[in-house]
Write a structure and sequence with these properties.
about 250 residues; alpha+beta; globular
């Protein structure tokens, strides 16, 4: 999703938790390090975090089909430039943004859960839940994916995506499921890019020249964990094996 690089840095990390796993942002610049940096409520890059933080969350929200955040958070971020001085740091921007959004939601009857900073940091960006679900989460929202077999056809799958959000008591809309063709107009550009990537990953894995995956041990623990657990569940079939080439050994 290279279009997002204009607004934020996206170096990732991931961790395994038994059957499950989590991905997060690996924030290395000290001025951007805070518990919120692990997920979507994070500061944008650039000289003026008041502006870049709003641009980052707006781009995320709009290109993920108006999910993975809330209108309350986007609107609160849009006011940062008016409510904070030019000297505001990234930490001050995030603290003010979260405080404002929390108050805005409370005024309309949406109460945020209290999440300790250490838990928020460990909670990261998105969890992979064994065997086939991913949840990108925040205090008042979640974007969830589930992938299921398409009969016995290994070349296709059923991909489900659903957005959850806290609403005031009695104001939650009726759940509506929609079958949507794989286009950016239906799914948003980020998911359309993901679907395109899935197609070519599958094509590459089935090519005669594919020797096996070499996942990044820092960024792709979710991939490693999924395949290890799947092999265990399949009684060893598809288990991890070393890949040898020119006396160099790699593997997962």
């Amino acid at each position: 999703h290279t279009q997002l690089l204009a607004y934020g840095d996206y170096y990732a990390l991931s961790r395994q938790y038994g059957l499950h796993s989590v991905s997060s942002y690996d924030t290395r610049d000290a001025k951007f390090q805070m518990s919120e940096s692990a997920g979507t409520t994070r500061a944008g890059k650039g000289d003026d975090p008041r502006v870049s933080t709003y641009e980052l969350i707006r781009e995320n929200y709009e290109t993920v089909n108006f999910s993975a955040s809330t209108e309350t958070l986007v609107n609160a971020a849009s006011r940062l430039k008016d409510e904070l001085p030019e000297t505001a740091t990234a930490q001050e921007c995030i603290a003010h943004w979260i405080k404002s959004a929390k108050a805005d939601d409370a005024a309309r009857g949406v109460i945020w859960p209290e999440v300790p900073p250490a838990i928020k940091q460990e909670g990261g960006l998105a969890w992979g839940l064994w065997p086939n679900q991913n949840i990108l989460h925040g205090e008042t929202f979640a974007l969830c994916y589930r992938v299921r077999p398409y009969g016995d056809d290994p070349n296709q799958c059923i991909f489900e995506s659903y957005a959850l959000e806290r609403f005031p008591e009695g104001e939650a809309p009726e759940t509506e499921w929609v079958y949507a063709e794989v286009t950016g107009e239906n799914w948003g550009s980020v998911l359309a890019q993901d679907f395109s990537n899935m197609e070519f990953v599958q094509k590459g894995m089935k090519s005669s020249g594919f020797r096996g995956p070499l996942p990044n041990p820092h960024q792709e623990q979710k991939v490693i964990n999924l395949h290890r657990n799947l092999a265990d569940w399949m009684e060893g079939r598809g288990a991890v094996t070393p890949v040898h080439k020119n006396n160099v050994v790699g593997g997962i």
